[in-house]
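Morning, I've got a small favour to ask if you have a moment. The fold is given in discrete form, as structure tokens running alongside the sequence. I'd be grateful if you could look everything over and explain what you see. No rush at all, and the record is pasted right below.
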Amino acid sequence: MTRRLRWLGRRLELRSFGLIPEHFNRVEGYRAALAVAMPLGLALATGHAEWGWAVFAAYWTCLCDAPGPDTLRSRLLGVFVAGGTLVAFLGSWLASFFPHADMVIGPLLVFLAVVAAALLPYGGLVGTLLAVVAVVAVGFPHPLPQALGQSFAFLGGATWAYLLINVVWRIDPLAPLRRATEAVTVRLLDMADNLVALGDGAHRDADWHSDHAEHRRAVRLAIERLRSLLARYEGENGASPSVHQALAAAETTFGTLIALDQAYIDRVGLLGERLATAQACRKALLAWHVTLRAGTEERAIARARARVRALRHHLTEPVFVGCALALERALHRLAEPLTASAPDSLPPAGQKGRGDRLPTPMIRQAARQAAGLLAVYAVATLFQLGYPYWAAMAVIVVLQGGLRITWARALERIAGSLLGGLIALMVLQVISAQLPLSLLAVALAAASISLRSVNYTIFVVFLTMLFVFVTDMLHPGAGIASARMLDNVIGSVAALLAVFLFWPDFGTALSLLIREGIEANGRYRDAVLTAEPADSIERARREAGVASVEAEVAFHDLGGLLQRLGNRGADVHTLQDMRNLAGRAAMDWHRLLANQAPGEGERDVEDDRPVRH
């Protein structure tokens, strides 16, 4: 079942829809359930509906707890608690000044929240959630006393969740790194499994290569997610150096699998040697996976390394000798991690964690969201929507970048809202008592937080049911589930229109992305053939991998579909040329390693830096 989920994840990632089952976190879900249960029980017991703000504040605070070291997490959560309390007060109070004030106050507060959060390191999620608080607050306009009460309810729920996260129920801050590392290993293992499953290699080249390119994309994306996450832990002794070593080992093993992949395509060497090398990779990755699960068991890696070393001395084809040598060195890194911090010299691609200065794209993003909100409020006024803040929330969470991100998020949001709303509607036809609904709400809070990093659509299904049930208990009314579904569709469509109308960002043309991928892989191969220093080759290899993934994903998303109408055949062949170039560069790299390998009887050199000739 898990393997089928990973296969589905590779297919969805190709189309910008993530499915990462390894990121399921039940402990965070249990904690979120407790965070929501206390204010929800208080609101129902006292009969004060305004304490619903404490319920949502507690939930949003749990949602704001992004992976990272304790100091970063507590700082960002503190900003959200304080900022959310202020925004909840200002939004509600200012929206009561004059009719339809929400059309002015909502977009203004959203713009300020997004821009201010952009100045914080890794503050993107905080800005998004503060914007969500703003649009919900203007949906409940109150005079000063009631607005203060609403903000105090928010402060109470958010503070309770903050203390629960940082004091009462602390979770190992390094757990996300372990999960991200495991996600890399299982994708590498899937790739190795498929190479072994080739058997006699009787596959059509084009079909096999096109299908197996999914593995290359899945591994590269998982590696880049781990690299980006690791950047959050800079200076944390607990995170380095073991994760850096795992990242380096993953890059080395990935290059080995790409070389083997291309060897199957080009029918390089003897079939028996190809299969034996692929099996060695698979056993080595199994040993690594077992070690990650066991936590301390390293004998499996030592045994796998010994088997690879023995195999290497029986191989004749230089590509496979180099593959075995690279794999052996990767296992060495895992078995004997450095004892001091070993920062990766290659920063995450497109890293946006530092908030030293405000980038122009972020101002445009905030302006897009404000414009989308204006459109939603106009539609809400025209058609007298009962819960316009739900549509406004959809604009905020869907409009998170250019067309590629927005259309994927919009489809996921619409699908999740429709499914969750239909289920909630059926449940409400059967259950109306507060006790079973409150128990369902607590369970849904746990499920949604546990699955938030697994898949966005699944997350929205549970989130929609949670909001519908809580709203039905605290603010009873007809058609809540239907309104939730309709409002999310309206908000998602408004977000898409905002991308098209305001500073349109359709991404780089598909043909240009493919050409850039070919050029990047060409630079990688040139660096190998000229035996440049290892750091230069590693940088060129990663740049080639990132460029290849961008071209592959763009080929299958909506923008690529629009661009390649009538030109699909040319793009398919050019894309295959790019894959072949990447594979042959990897084979050249491993031939270079084989040529520099120590002779029989000499001590193996563990440094994988090739000597410049």
